[in-house]
Amino acid sequence: MRTIDVCLSPDMMHLYPVVDHAVVVVDILRATSCMTTAFAYGIDTIAPFAKLEHCLAMKVNGFYTAGERDGKKVDGFDLGNSPFEYQDPKLKGAKIAFTTTNGTQAIVKSLGASEIIIGSFLNLTAVANHLKTLPQNILVVCAGWKGKFNLEDTLFAGALVEKLKGEVNPACDAPLAAQALYNQAKSNMVGFLSNSSHVKRLAKLNIHKDITFCLTEDTYSVVPVLRDNVLRKIN
Ligand code: 3SL
Questions:
Q1: Which of 29, 70, 109 to mutate to test the pocket of ligand 1 (most atoms within 8 A of CB)?
Q2: In angstroms, what CA-CA distances link 211 with 4, 13, 31, 221?
Q3: Which of 25, 26, 28, 30 for a ligand 1 pocket mutation test, highest count of atoms within 8 Å of Cβ?
Q4: What's the rounded Cα separation, in Å, for the pair 103 and 83?
């Protein structure tokens, strides 16, 4: 049977070979939730970057520049990191260059995997169904916060383990821990996370509605996948 593993922080990536794996990158608050929303609203392409200057350089190629540092929109960028900004009909068919504090860093660190998939609660079941069709072992990469563990990405990893129960075996204890946490939290994730570090950080920026939105399961059915260094939706 295939296996599922969970890397709880990008700083632990050296422990998890990505070659021959299907990697699901998750940054619930808020990068991968934004990306999922963007594709659900018809955006054509997202090019993820670790560095601000590489992202900004894409402007001359007709890309919108998007993302944040420490939760705040970058000066001179077209878009920030709220999923609601990507529900704009004028962005339909757009190409977006994206850089964030943790989410796009985790994507770049996952390069070399046989498939890189963008996961969020918003497309949880669609991602699980896509993973069921693949032959590879699965690794969920939690973006965390600047190398530290966070609860919300771990809850998503646990939700995926739960969805794939019977189809894949946990490769170590991290998927089991994530699954146990998710089962404890699932009836009230907003409440469960109320004391968490990034919820508190975002609350200071006054974006409570982003938090509730990003914790809602199965709003969309898109599955963004990285091919030739850009993300596109495959369904
Ligand atoms: O770190 C990231 O990738 C962001 O999603 C963080 S924030 O939610 O915009 O603060």
A1: 29
A2: 27, 27, 12, 20
A3: 30
A4: 14
**Predicted pLDDT at 52:** 97
For the chain, domains (ranges, CATH) are: 3-227 (3.90.1560.10)
Q: How many helices (H) and strands (E) does the chain have?
A: 9, 11
Residue 204's pLDDT band (cuts 50, 70, 90):
confident
Q: Which residues are CB-neighbours of 75 under 8 A, at least 6 positions away?
A: none
The answer, yes or no, to whether residue 235 has pLDDT greater than 90, is no
Q: Quick one: what percent of the chain has pLDDT higher than 90?
A: 95
* Ligand 1 contact via 25 beta carbon (within 6 Å): no
Q: What per-residue confidence (pLDDT) applies to 202?
A: 87
